[in-house]
Amino acid sequence: LEKKAFRKLPILQSLDRALQYGHHEIRLLAFTTSLNEMPLVEYIFQRHIRKVVKDGKLRHRLMPDYPIGCKRILIS
């Protein structure tokens, strides 16, 4: 469906790429400049892990013991 839309209206692909770029840039700013938002980012991460990983032992092993941002972060 996307491919058809992009073929018919190439501007849609440019708009989609620009929106994705902007979204990633905003997320990057949260990790590099706005340290006040780190507790919220950590909370969202922990909530996601609790929801996805049901095994408590595995969940504990997956949780980093350092603050988010101290190591390299894969933003995808």
Characterise this structure.
GO terms for molecular function: monooxygenase activity. This is 4-hydroxyacetophenone monooxygenase. Keywords: Monooxygenase, Oxidoreductase. This protein is an all-alpha fold and 76 residues long. It folds into 2 domains: 33 residues, no CATH class; 40 residues, no CATH class. Helix content is 68%, strand content 0%. The chain is built from 4 helices and no strands. Helix 1 crosses helix 2. The longest helix has 23 residues.
List keywords for this structure.
76 residues; elongated; mainly alpha; monooxygenase activity; 68% helix; monooxygenase
Strand-pairing-aware structural class: mainly alpha
Number of domains: 2
The gross shape turns out to be: elongated
H and E string: HHHH
Estimate the mean pLDDT confidence: 82
Total strands: the figure is: 0
Approximately how much helix is present in the residues? 55-70%
User: Biggest β-sheet, characterized?
Assistant: none
Distance between the termini: 23 Å
Strand content: under 5%
Query: What is the rounded Rg?
Result: 17 Å
Number of helices: 4
Any chance you could write out the topology, listing elements then pairs?
Layout: H1 2-8, H2 10-32, H3 38-52, H4 56-62
Keywords: Monooxygenase, Oxidoreductase
Organism: Acinetobacter baumannii
Protein name: 4-hydroxyacetophenone monooxygenase
